Amino acid sequence: MFPMVLLVIALGGVGLSGIRDRTRTRTALMYAAKSGLGLLPPLLAMTAGVGLTMAAVPASVIAQLFHAHGAVGFFLLAGLGALLTIPAPMAYPLAGSLYHMGASLSALASFITTLTMVGILTSPMEIKAFGRRFTLIRQALSLLLALLIGALMGVLV
Amino acid sequence: MNPKVQNSLLIVAIILLLHLALWVPFPALAVRSLGQWFTGIGEVLVIVPSVLILIGLFDAWVPKEVVEQGLGPTSGLRGVLFALLLGTGAAGPLYAAFPIGLSLRAKGARTANLVIFLGAWATIKIPMLMMESAFLSTRFALLRLAMTLPGIIACGFLMEYLEPKPATALSPLACE
């Protein structure tokens, strides 16, 4: 249902854009195709990794890991998210799989937030652009924000 | 052939080989794993192309030059809104925003707006909101948005308080 709505909106946008400006629409579609092709290898590998994990480890065991060790699961996901910065089109499917495996929404909220806002592995690029102090403060504040959002999500959901 | 297509085919080949190797001792596991893989690919393929098209359209219709105006020290609330709007409208992972952030700073954007721009770029994007709704739930996506939005703005002003004097801007070419 939802994917259909999304597709209709996207196709409607392409149609509208095509009427207004053909070249610009072509650029937009080329961009989509190019970034799609770029995303394909990591997406294939990620879905295979998730698939193998789900096939090999019973869902109940994974769920237990997230439930019995709630705080551990929470900080594990937040920490993992803080280390990596992956493009959002990959972050959401991954979070969706983790949700089906039994991760709590609260842990996933902080996971997604750190995944997109905090990137320890990509921080050299940020330091190069804005300096060490700026990078350190921004990432620390973002990490705190992510943990706060996760905790609040736990209360609200 | 396009190297990205080549990479994808290579990865598919590796995954299939791994499953073949797995199939010899554990046939049931290999079959189940492949099944999960196809399901996962299917879930991604029905959503991601639409999202990428929407991002492409955003990127094509919001000119980059607009991104570099109107965020100065006296921009106030309008600057904050503008920073949010710019961040949500553009495409790419966070590190793609660094060169743009640099030129914003070089053109006199205040620290709060710069941080808000980076934060919005990272986590608030309308097409991404749809994707988040699809993979988690609409309620989850909206709740997270409702918390992230004030959080990012607070981070921006806190950051400006902690580091009021902007560091000397390096050349925008430094991180390309």
Structural class of chain A: mainly alpha
Tell me what portion of residues of chain A adopts beta-strand conformation: under 5%
Task: Tell how many strands the DSSP assignment of chain A holds.
Answer: 0
Low-confidence stretches of chain B: 169-176
Global morphology of chain B: elongated
For the largest interface in this structure, which chains are involved and how many residues does each contribute?
A: A-B, 76 and 79 residues
Task: Provide a descriptive summary of the structure in words.
Chain A has helices at residues 2-20, 22-56, 59-68, 70-83, 88-100, 105-117, 123-130, 132-156. The mean pLDDT of chain A is 84. Chain A folds into 2 domains: 1-40; 57-156, no CATH class. Chain A is built from 8 helices and no strands. By secondary structure, chain A is mainly α. Chain B has 176 residues and is mainly alpha-helical. Chain B folds into 2 domains: 3-45, no CATH class; 60-175, no CATH class. Chain B contains 9 helices and no strands. Chain B has helices at residues 3-23, 27-45, 48-61, 64-67, 76-89, 94-106, 111-123, 126-135, 138-162. In chain B, helix 3 packs antiparallel against helix 8 (126-135) and helix 7 packs antiparallel against helix 9 (138-162). Chain B starts with a helix and ends in a 14-residue tail after the last helix. At the A-B interface, helix 1, helix 2, helix 5, helix 6 and helix 7 of A face helix 1, helix 2, helix 3, helix 6 and helix 7 of B.
